[in-house]
Amino acid sequence: MSLSKKMEGALNDQLILEDYASNLYLSMASWCESQTLDGCAEFMYRQADEERMHMLKIFHYINEVDGHALSPGIDQPPHNWPSVQEMFHEVYQHEQKVTSAINNLVEVALAEKDHSTYNFLQWYVDEQREEETLMRTILDRIKLIGDGPQSLYYIDKEVRTINAKAEKAESI
Q: Is 137 strand, coil or helix?
């Protein structure tokens, strides 16, 4: 089996988006640490690792099906956010962008009658649904906590709890 040039190009474009997400979340983790939001930092480090794994999974797939994966060059992500609330809102928006890109890849696979890639992408379809749900949950909890004087403490504590649950679920 061999990828069409159109499919190969689309998958290589997705590598850029996944790698950018990893670096964006790494930058967010550093910012969280500088704000003493250790629970949020742990969460963002885990997200950065997960996005890198997503990128590598596509990278290996391209090569496995006789394509040529290209190591992505990416733009520098931001390094500061006005608030942790706005940072998580940006994460949610980015995950929506990735979901849209995955859906576009599925459309290309269908148009190219590339059933193998279509099947491969179903994992990403499910993963993006989970990612968006997770980020919406965090944003909903942040709204519930509000922005009172101790809100950062409770946001950080809540994200730490969510992260611990996610790590436990992954290890099962």
A: helix
Nearest to 163 by CA among 49, 27, 81: 49
| Domain at 117, CATH number | 1.20.1260.10
Tens digit of each residue's pLDDT (9 = 90 or more) over 97-123: 999 999 999 999 999 999 999 999 999
Confidence (pLDDT) at 128: 96
d(CA 1, CA 65): 6
Contacts of 117 (CB under 8 A, 6+ apart): 3, 7, 11, 61, 65, 105, 109
Which structural domain range is residue 83 located in?
Answer: 5-171
pLDDT value at 1 more than 80: no
